[in-house]
Amino acid sequence: MRRATGLSKDEVRIEWGRIYLHPSGDLQKLRERLSMVFGVKSFSVVLVVPHELERMREAAVELARRAVARGVRTFKIEARRSFKAFPLNSMEINQELGRAVLRALPELHVDVHAPEVIIEVEVRQEGVFLCSERIAGPGGLPVGIAGRALLLLSGGIDSPVAGWMLMKRGVAVDAVYFHSPPYVGEKAKEKVLELGRVLARWRAEALTVYVPRFTEIQVEVSRVAPPSLWTILFRRFMHRVAERIAETHGYGALATGESLGQVASQTMENLACVDAVTRMLVLRPLIGWDKAEIVQRAREVGTYEISILPYEDCCVLFAPRHPETHARLERVEAIEARLDIPRLVEGALERLEIFSVTEQEVSSVATSPSA
Q1: For the chain, how big is the Rg over CA atoms in Å?
Q2: Packing angle between helix 341-350 and helix 215-224, nearest 10 degrees?
Q3: How many Cα atoms within 13 Å fall on the side-chain side of residue 285?
Q4: What is the pLDDT, as a whole number, of residue 371?
Q5: Is residue 56 over pLDDT 70?
Q6: Which of 9, 191, 210, 321 is the residue whose CA sits 20 to 30 A from 371?
Q7: Cα gap 139→225, rounded to integer Å
């Protein structure tokens, strides 16, 4: 929470079921950040007053007055009292504050079943907390508690959304992008790093992007294999290279943006053929989504406008006109037997570029001699 919000230790207090923030800076900026912190279901800006009934009435009226300014006409007081030394019980607090609001704002009406605004009151030992708005957070789990995964990040629409979905389930996601110069220009790599910046905003810390060199693999595969199997063979090599990086750097799984049946390479048989090449778990959070759902989520996440920039990745440029939709593993392995697989994998890793990506900047960490 402190990392995501930039607050100091003294400004964050954690209690059972609640995290209390006491910001000294820009409240609007804090609200924007909290709306992007996974694990936060909702948050509220509260008024805090002492255990004094008159101060509680004043705070309730102030919140109701703000609601009226927004056009609200019905309300409800909803009190909870965990501090049992306070002389009034929850029902009595509801009645006292409700009467105060009606006296001050006669245009309001009580509606206990479907109010336009609920003024929530929590009587705790340290004071009385009042709020009239619950702002939705993204929900999910705090990033990192479910392990680490390496996302195969292309410049397309799907894979950034897959990374976002995994982060929402508590997975710390880093990425690998396969670069094929001179067939793919630097603009394509820059596009992927820009997608990484958006994901880093949701992760609330630097995201690492690994960029192995994929050119020789694509040239060799296209030399020995029929075009219909290029995509399957490319993806098998991508998984081999990604698995090496993941094992070296301590990731527990690979992740992709594949959706069953969305394109020819993503049939059940083809996915099984790709999975057969690695031992590591492959997560596919979008497997049951259709394209419209993925596009909508990409817009919400903030990656869509970047993903549609016209800089194509290596798979798009080498895409066959008539791809195989029901690949047989034995045929694929027979073609691969004509390739020096260890040499090609090592070659992809020999000039592995590593970038540290934050919301603010992209910095080159290293060009590694090997993974």
Answers
A1: 27
A2: 150
A3: 24
A4: 44
A5: yes
A6: 191
A7: 46
Structure-token pair, residue 360: 């603010």
Query: How distant is the alpha carbon of residue 158 from its chain centre?
Result: 13
Give the start-to-end residue ranges of the domains of the chain: 2-136, 148-368
Q: What is the pLDDT of residue 316?
A: 65
Options 1.10.3720.10, 3.40.50.720, 3.30.1330.120, 3.40.50.620; CATH of 148-368: 3.40.50.620
Classify domain 2-136 by CATH number.
3.30.2130.30
